[in-house]
């Protein structure tokens, strides 16, 4: 969708902001451009909508050289969101959102209907917020309006220049979550500029790590964190890149342990016998539909009246995550519930129990993910040596 071919931007004083840049962004892909101030990432983005003109090379948008397109017409085809939002203070939220459709000649009714649809999509009820003015909104709400306005004409490409940088950390995290949800629905081709590596990792399908006018590494987040291409990239992503990688490594079924399983209506005597046979200290407790109920200890079962049901001795289990959740979510659930493991469920099948993830298996999953990326293989095809193997 977007292709840079040997693009250079050099200013009259001899400063080179972008130097021989070549890369491609696929349709529907979200690419984050990350790096320190002055590295050229914002210049790169502004060349796409010709707010800055390159001095060499060319940029193609859906196969068309943008240098041959009228700049005003080009910008109306591209959504643009900036940190300061840039809403018109004298216009209502609804009219702000309908700005580009109005410029494109849409009828007022159609433009306002589209604006209302987009406000609802970004979580702002048009009946509540549509007639308000920007000064009546919080910073986070103004950013949502900015995103809605950028999407109003249904552009194929969205440029975002540190859009969440001016809000507090809590609101910023909510906006990131909301944008990921939105992107999963609209699937725009997005260039997203940020100086925050954690934001880049969380949002990007791929990350372009900038040095000085050049891209030092252009890879999926897990590869950038697990196998930095240079000492510069390793230093930029930080010594805690292993922890950051937890957030982009999903739980797979092969990561799970299979502990003993008993059911709510089983007799305590039978359940205790099974745990003794398997030399296990506890078992997962499921209902008749194989859904997670909780867990029960061997000690509780062995001291119980053998004729009672497991349900009389089971304890609820709140530490659980869906398969496909990140290792970071699993680790967070362990800490939040002071649990030694988390249950992993298949949400597509009525929360069917799949297994448990322990700290040891979490560590192993992270190591296998890193090793798999290094050799270009699937995680299931990679084995690592653990303490248990020694």
Would you write up a description of this structure?
With 390 residues, the protein is an alpha/beta fold. It has 2 domains: 2-246, P-loop containing nucleotide triphosphate hydrolases (Rossmann fold), CATH 3.40.50; 253-365, CBS-domain. Helices cover 36% and strands 23% of the residues. The chain has a 6-stranded mixed beta sheet, with helices on both faces. A hairpin with a 5-residue loop joins β12 (282-286) and β13. α5 crosses α7. It is globular and about 85 Å long. The two termini are 50 Å apart.
H/I helix tally: 16
The computed structural class is alpha/beta
Q: Which percent bin holds the helix content?
A: 25-40%
Q: How are the strands of the biggest sheet laid out side by side? A: 6-7-8-3-9-10
State the major sheet: 6 strands, mixed
Architecture per CATH nomenclature, i.e. the level-2 architecture of the largest domain: 3-Layer(aba) Sandwich
Query: Which fold name fills CATH's third level, the topology of the largest domain?
Result: Rossmann fold
How much of the sequence lies in strands comes to 15-25%
Query: How many domain modules?
Result: 2
- What distance lies between the first and last C-alpha atoms, to the nearest angstrom? 50 Å
Oligomer: single chain
Features:
Rossmann fold, CBS-domain, six-stranded mixed beta sheet, 36% helix, globular
Question: Brief description of this entry?
Answer:
The protein is α/β, with parallel strands linked by helices and 390 residues long. It is 36% helix and 23% strand.
